[in-house]
Amino acid sequence: MLPFNPNFIYLALLIFIRIGVILALCPPLGGQAIPVRMRVLLGLLLTYLAIGAAPAVTIPESYLGVIVAGLQEAVVGLMMGMAVRLFFAVAEMAGQFIAREIGLAMSLTINPVEGTQDSSMSLLLYYIAGVIFFLGQFHHDVIESFVASLHWAPVGHALSAGYGVGQIIAISAHVIYTALQMAAPFLAVMFLVNLAFAVLGKVAPNVNVFIVSFAVRTGLGLWLVAASAGLLIQLLYQQGERVGSGMLSWLPN
Protein backbone atom coordinates (compact mmCIF):
# COMPACT_ATOMS: atom_id res chain seq x y z
CA MET A 1 0.00 0.00 0.00
CA LEU A 2 1.26 3.47 -0.86
CA PRO A 3 2.24 5.68 2.10
CA PHE A 4 -0.44 8.32 2.10
CA ASN A 5 1.25 11.06 4.10
CA PRO A 6 1.39 14.82 3.45
CA ASN A 7 4.81 14.69 1.80
CA PHE A 8 3.70 11.86 -0.48
CA ILE A 9 0.55 13.74 -1.51
CA TYR A 10 2.63 16.87 -2.13
CA LEU A 11 5.03 14.88 -4.32
CA ALA A 12 2.13 13.35 -6.27
CA LEU A 13 0.60 16.80 -6.81
CA LEU A 14 3.84 18.21 -8.26
CA ILE A 15 4.28 15.21 -10.56
CA PHE A 16 0.66 15.51 -11.70
CA ILE A 17 1.18 19.18 -12.55
CA ARG A 18 4.23 18.34 -14.66
CA ILE A 19 2.63 15.50 -16.59
CA GLY A 20 -0.66 17.39 -16.88
CA VAL A 21 1.00 20.27 -18.71
CA ILE A 22 2.91 17.84 -20.95
CA LEU A 23 -0.31 16.04 -21.89
CA ALA A 24 -2.08 19.34 -22.54
CA LEU A 25 0.54 20.13 -25.19
CA CYS A 26 0.42 16.65 -26.75
CA PRO A 27 -2.61 16.74 -29.12
CA PRO A 28 -3.10 12.96 -29.56
CA LEU A 29 -3.07 12.40 -25.78
CA GLY A 30 -4.56 15.63 -24.46
CA GLY A 31 -6.37 17.33 -27.34
CA GLN A 32 -9.87 18.77 -27.16
CA ALA A 33 -11.25 15.68 -28.86
CA ILE A 34 -10.39 13.67 -25.73
CA PRO A 35 -12.84 14.18 -22.81
CA VAL A 36 -11.50 16.08 -19.82
CA ARG A 37 -12.13 13.13 -17.52
CA MET A 38 -10.04 10.86 -19.71
CA ARG A 39 -7.19 13.39 -19.74
CA VAL A 40 -7.31 13.70 -15.96
CA LEU A 41 -7.43 9.93 -15.50
CA LEU A 42 -4.46 9.51 -17.84
CA GLY A 43 -2.52 12.10 -15.87
CA LEU A 44 -3.38 10.39 -12.58
CA LEU A 45 -2.41 6.99 -13.99
CA LEU A 46 0.98 8.23 -15.19
CA THR A 47 1.51 9.97 -11.85
CA TYR A 48 0.78 6.72 -10.01
CA LEU A 49 3.15 4.75 -12.24
CA ALA A 50 5.99 7.28 -12.07
CA ILE A 51 5.86 8.36 -8.45
CA GLY A 52 8.11 5.50 -7.35
CA ALA A 53 10.91 6.86 -9.55
CA ALA A 54 10.78 10.36 -8.04
CA PRO A 55 13.01 11.39 -5.12
CA ALA A 56 11.22 12.23 -1.88
CA VAL A 57 10.35 15.86 -1.15
CA THR A 58 9.18 17.76 1.90
CA ILE A 59 6.39 20.29 2.03
CA PRO A 60 7.62 23.90 2.21
CA GLU A 61 6.91 25.76 5.40
CA SER A 62 4.84 28.46 3.69
CA TYR A 63 1.94 28.42 1.24
CA LEU A 64 4.00 30.64 -1.04
CA GLY A 65 6.63 27.91 -1.30
CA VAL A 66 3.97 25.41 -2.37
CA ILE A 67 2.64 27.81 -5.03
CA VAL A 68 6.13 28.56 -6.34
CA ALA A 69 6.95 24.85 -6.54
CA GLY A 70 3.73 24.21 -8.46
CA LEU A 71 4.48 27.03 -10.90
CA GLN A 72 7.99 25.69 -11.41
CA GLU A 73 6.65 22.25 -12.27
CA ALA A 74 4.21 23.86 -14.71
CA VAL A 75 7.13 25.66 -16.41
CA VAL A 76 9.16 22.44 -16.63
CA GLY A 77 6.14 20.61 -18.05
CA LEU A 78 5.59 23.48 -20.48
CA MET A 79 9.14 23.25 -21.84
CA MET A 80 8.97 19.46 -22.12
CA GLY A 81 5.54 19.62 -23.71
CA MET A 82 6.75 22.16 -26.24
CA ALA A 83 9.17 19.53 -27.55
CA VAL A 84 6.14 17.35 -28.32
CA ARG A 85 4.04 20.21 -29.66
CA LEU A 86 6.91 21.18 -31.96
CA PHE A 87 6.44 17.91 -33.84
CA PHE A 88 2.87 18.84 -34.77
CA ALA A 89 3.65 22.53 -35.23
CA VAL A 90 6.14 21.60 -37.94
CA ALA A 91 3.43 19.71 -39.84
CA GLU A 92 0.95 22.58 -39.48
CA MET A 93 3.40 25.28 -40.56
CA ALA A 94 4.67 23.24 -43.51
CA GLY A 95 1.06 22.70 -44.56
CA GLN A 96 0.43 26.46 -44.44
CA PHE A 97 3.48 27.14 -46.60
CA ILE A 98 2.47 24.49 -49.13
CA ALA A 99 -1.19 25.55 -49.21
CA ARG A 100 -0.20 29.17 -49.83
CA GLU A 101 2.00 28.18 -52.75
CA ILE A 102 -0.51 25.90 -54.49
CA GLY A 103 -3.51 28.18 -54.00
CA LEU A 104 -5.32 26.25 -51.25
CA ALA A 105 -4.65 28.62 -48.36
CA MET A 106 -8.31 29.71 -48.22
CA SER A 107 -9.72 26.17 -48.14
CA LEU A 108 -10.15 26.05 -44.37
CA THR A 109 -11.22 22.91 -42.52
CA ILE A 110 -12.05 22.36 -38.87
CA ASN A 111 -9.34 20.53 -36.94
CA PRO A 112 -11.38 18.33 -34.57
CA VAL A 113 -8.38 17.56 -32.35
CA GLU A 114 -7.62 21.16 -31.43
CA GLY A 115 -10.89 22.86 -32.37
CA THR A 116 -9.25 25.33 -34.77
CA GLN A 117 -9.52 26.10 -38.47
CA ASP A 118 -6.59 25.01 -40.64
CA SER A 119 -5.96 24.77 -44.34
CA SER A 120 -6.63 21.42 -45.94
CA MET A 121 -2.90 20.82 -46.45
CA SER A 122 -2.14 21.63 -42.81
CA LEU A 123 -4.82 19.22 -41.65
CA LEU A 124 -3.53 16.50 -43.99
CA LEU A 125 0.03 16.79 -42.68
CA TYR A 126 -1.31 17.07 -39.12
CA TYR A 127 -3.11 13.73 -39.47
CA ILE A 128 -0.03 12.15 -41.05
CA ALA A 129 2.04 13.41 -38.11
CA GLY A 130 -0.48 11.85 -35.71
CA VAL A 131 -0.25 8.48 -37.44
CA ILE A 132 3.57 8.65 -37.41
CA PHE A 133 3.48 9.63 -33.73
CA PHE A 134 1.83 6.34 -32.78
CA LEU A 135 3.24 3.99 -35.43
CA GLY A 136 6.75 5.22 -34.65
CA GLN A 137 6.18 4.54 -30.92
CA PHE A 138 7.00 8.16 -30.16
CA HIS A 139 4.29 8.26 -27.51
CA HIS A 140 6.44 5.73 -25.63
CA ASP A 141 9.36 8.15 -25.89
CA VAL A 142 7.20 10.88 -24.34
CA ILE A 143 6.35 8.72 -21.32
CA GLU A 144 9.93 7.46 -20.94
CA SER A 145 11.31 11.01 -21.10
CA PHE A 146 8.77 12.15 -18.52
CA VAL A 147 9.89 9.43 -16.10
CA ALA A 148 13.56 10.18 -16.82
CA SER A 149 12.93 13.87 -16.13
CA LEU A 150 12.15 13.01 -12.52
CA HIS A 151 15.85 12.15 -12.17
CA TRP A 152 17.26 14.87 -14.42
CA ALA A 153 15.15 17.60 -12.84
CA PRO A 154 13.58 16.33 -9.58
CA VAL A 155 10.25 17.83 -8.60
CA GLY A 156 10.69 20.88 -6.44
CA HIS A 157 13.99 21.65 -8.20
CA ALA A 158 14.60 25.42 -8.22
CA LEU A 159 14.72 26.98 -11.68
CA SER A 160 17.52 29.32 -12.67
CA ALA A 161 16.76 32.92 -13.64
CA GLY A 162 15.87 33.27 -17.31
CA TYR A 163 15.15 29.57 -17.75
CA GLY A 164 13.09 28.93 -20.86
CA VAL A 165 14.08 32.00 -22.91
CA GLY A 166 16.82 30.28 -24.88
CA GLN A 167 14.72 27.14 -25.25
CA ILE A 168 11.77 29.05 -26.71
CA ILE A 169 14.04 30.78 -29.23
CA ALA A 170 15.53 27.42 -30.22
CA ILE A 171 12.05 25.90 -30.56
CA SER A 172 10.81 28.70 -32.82
CA ALA A 173 13.89 28.60 -35.03
CA HIS A 174 13.76 24.82 -35.42
CA VAL A 175 10.05 24.78 -36.27
CA ILE A 176 10.51 27.35 -39.04
CA TYR A 177 13.64 25.62 -40.38
CA THR A 178 12.05 22.16 -40.60
CA ALA A 179 8.78 23.52 -42.03
CA LEU A 180 10.68 25.38 -44.75
CA GLN A 181 12.69 22.23 -45.44
CA MET A 182 9.44 20.31 -46.03
CA ALA A 183 7.96 23.07 -48.19
CA ALA A 184 11.18 23.77 -50.14
CA PRO A 185 10.24 21.68 -53.24
CA PHE A 186 6.92 23.51 -53.49
CA LEU A 187 8.53 26.93 -53.04
CA ALA A 188 11.08 26.19 -55.77
CA VAL A 189 8.63 24.72 -58.29
CA MET A 190 6.01 27.44 -57.78
CA PHE A 191 8.67 30.13 -58.15
CA LEU A 192 9.54 28.71 -61.56
CA VAL A 193 5.85 28.49 -62.47
CA ASN A 194 5.25 32.11 -61.49
CA LEU A 195 8.34 33.15 -63.42
CA ALA A 196 7.15 31.28 -66.51
CA PHE A 197 3.72 32.88 -66.38
CA ALA A 198 5.26 36.30 -65.83
CA VAL A 199 7.19 35.86 -69.07
CA LEU A 200 4.06 34.51 -70.77
CA GLY A 201 2.14 37.61 -69.66
CA LYS A 202 4.68 39.81 -71.38
CA VAL A 203 4.86 37.70 -74.54
CA ALA A 204 1.09 37.13 -74.89
CA PRO A 205 -0.76 40.01 -73.17
CA ASN A 206 -4.15 38.71 -74.37
CA VAL A 207 -3.85 35.51 -72.32
CA ASN A 208 -5.59 35.63 -68.94
CA VAL A 209 -2.45 34.63 -67.06
CA PHE A 210 -4.04 34.87 -63.60
CA ILE A 211 -6.80 32.32 -64.25
CA VAL A 212 -4.56 29.93 -66.16
CA SER A 213 -1.73 30.13 -63.62
CA PHE A 214 -4.11 29.47 -60.74
CA ALA A 215 -5.33 26.22 -62.30
CA VAL A 216 -1.80 25.15 -63.22
CA ARG A 217 -0.42 25.93 -59.75
CA THR A 218 -3.18 23.95 -58.02
CA GLY A 219 -2.95 20.95 -60.34
CA LEU A 220 0.84 20.89 -60.32
CA GLY A 221 0.87 21.40 -56.55
CA LEU A 222 -1.41 18.42 -55.91
CA TRP A 223 0.76 16.27 -58.17
CA LEU A 224 3.84 17.45 -56.28
CA VAL A 225 2.19 16.54 -52.95
CA ALA A 226 1.76 12.97 -54.17
CA ALA A 227 5.27 12.87 -55.65
CA SER A 228 6.94 14.19 -52.50
CA ALA A 229 4.84 12.22 -50.00
CA GLY A 230 7.78 9.99 -49.14
CA LEU A 231 10.01 12.99 -48.42
CA LEU A 232 7.37 14.65 -46.24
CA ILE A 233 6.83 11.46 -44.23
CA GLN A 234 10.58 10.93 -43.85
CA LEU A 235 11.12 14.48 -42.54
CA LEU A 236 8.22 14.12 -40.10
CA TYR A 237 9.58 10.78 -38.89
CA GLN A 238 13.03 12.29 -38.34
CA GLN A 239 11.40 15.10 -36.40
CA GLY A 240 9.51 12.55 -34.30
CA GLU A 241 12.74 10.74 -33.44
CA ARG A 242 13.93 13.92 -31.71
CA VAL A 243 10.86 14.27 -29.49
CA GLY A 244 12.16 12.21 -26.56
CA SER A 245 15.66 13.67 -26.55
CA GLY A 246 14.23 17.14 -27.08
CA MET A 247 12.10 16.83 -23.95
CA LEU A 248 15.19 16.04 -21.88
CA SER A 249 17.46 18.59 -23.56
CA TRP A 250 15.22 21.46 -22.42
CA LEU A 251 15.26 20.49 -18.77
CA PRO A 252 16.77 22.98 -16.30
CA ASN A 253 20.41 22.33 -15.44
Secondary structure: elements and pairs:
Elements: H1 6-24, H2 27-30, H3 36-50, H4 63-102, E1 108-111, E2 116-119, H5 120-135, H6 138-152, H7 165-203, H8 209-227, H9 229-241, H10 243-249
Antiparallel strand pairs: 1-2
Keywords:
253 residues, mainly alpha, two-stranded antiparallel ribbon, 10 helices, elongated
Describe it for me?
74% of the residues lie in helices and 3% in strands. Helix 1 packs parallel to helix 4 (63-102) and helix 6 (138-152) runs parallel beside helix 10 (243-249). The protein has helices at 6-24, 27-30, 36-50, 63-102, 120-135, 138-152, 165-203, 209-227, 229-241, 243-249; strands spanning 108-111, 116-119. The chain has one domain (6-249). Strands 1-2 form a two-stranded antiparallel ribbon. The chain has 253 residues and is mainly alpha-helical. The chain has 10 helices and 2 strands; from the N terminus they run ααααββαααααα. Strand 1 (108-111) and strand 2 (116-119) form a beta hairpin.
